[in-house]
Write a structure and sequence with these properties.
Mean pLDDT: 97
Order of helices and strands: HHHEEEEEEEEEHEEEEEEEEEEE
Shape: globular
Structural class: alpha/beta
Strand content: 25-35%
Low-confidence stretches: none
CATH superfamily: Hexapeptide repeat proteins
Number of domains: 1
Number of strands: 20
Distance between the termini: 59 Å
Strand order of the largest sheet: 1-4-7-14-17-19-20
CATH topology: UDP N-Acetylglucosamine Acyltransferase, domain 1
Number of helices: 4
CATH class: Mainly Beta
Radius of gyration: 19 Å
Largest sheet: 7 strands, mixed
C-alpha cells in the first residue's frame, strides 16, 4: 500500500514519502499564488483553485489568505464561503457540504499525533535513508447549511451535522448533532436551533 493510501485511510504513514512531499509542495506553491492575487483577479483565482481545490461546487469564494496542506483531498459543496486565514490540513479527507460559511481564522485539522513522545519523535528510516516520523489522522465532515464563526478549530474525526452554528473561538473535538448551537472549548451543544430563532421575530433588528 502506498503512503498516500495509508494516510487517507487514517493509518500510520510516512509524511516524507516522495509522492506526498511533491503533492504538498505543489499545494503550498498554489496557496502562495492565490494569496498574492488580487480579489478582482477572478479568472486568475479560478485557475489556481482548479488545481488546488478541484473538488468544489459552484460559487466558491475564498477571501484569502488560504493555507491547504494538499487541497486535492478536500471537497466543498455549492455556495461555500471562507473568510480570512482559512487553514486546512487535509491529510485525511475533508468534506464540506452546501451553503457552509466560515468566519476568519477557521482551522480544520485532520492530523493526529501519538501521545507518547517515544512514538512521536523523529526517527531514522534505514530502509529509505532519511529521518521521518509517524503520523496518522481522521477525516472531518461539515454537512449542509452550517455557520462556523471566527477562530474555530475543528479536530480530526469530527462530523458537524446539518444546520449547525458553531460559536466563535470554539474547539470542536466531538460530533455535533444537527441544528445545534454549540460553542466553547471544548465545544458543547447549548441548545437546538428552532423556529423561534426566525429573523422576523427579532423585532430589535427590523
Amino acid at each position: 500500500m502506498k503512503e498516500k493510501e495509508k494516510m487517507l485511510q487514517g493509518k500510520i504513514y510516512d509524511p516524507n514519502d516522495d509522492e506526498l512531499l511533491s503533492l504538498r509542495r505543489k499545494a503550498h506553491s498554489l496557496n502562495k499564488k492565490y494569496n498574492d492575487s488580487l480579489e478582482e483577479e477572478v479568472n486568475v483565482r479560478e485557475e489556481i483553485l482548479n488545481k488546488l481545490l478541484p473538488n468544489r461546487g459552484q460559487n466558491t469564494y475564498l477571501q484569502g489568505p488560504i493555507y491547504f496542506d494538499y487541497g486535492v483531498f478536500t471537497t466543498v459543496g455549492d455556495n461555500f464561503y471562507a473568510n480570512f486565514n482559512f487553514t486546512v490540513l487535509d491529510t485525511c479527507k475533508v468534506t464540506i457540504g452546501n451553503n457552509v460559511f466560515l468566519g476568519p481564522n477557521v482551522s480544520i485539522f485532520t492530523p493526529l499525533h501519538p501521545l507518547r513522545y517515544q512514538d512521536r519523535n523523529p526517527y531514522f528510516n534505514k530502509d529509505k535513508n532519511y529521518t521521518t516520523d509517524k503520523e496518522y489522522g481522521a477525516p472531518i465532515t461539515i454537512k449542509d447549511n452550517c455557520w462556523i464563526a471566527g477562530n474555530v478549530t475543528i479536530c480530526g474525526g469530527v462530523t458537524i451535522n446539518e444546520g449547525c452554528v458553531i460559536g466563535a473561538g470554539s474547539v470542536v473535538t466531538r460530533d455535533i448533532p444537527a441544528n445545534s448551537l454549540a460553542f466553547g472549548n471544548p465545544c458543547k451543544v447549548k441548545r437546538t436551533i428552532t423556529e423561534e430563532d426566525r429573523l422576523e421575530l427579532k423585532k430589535h433588528l427590523l
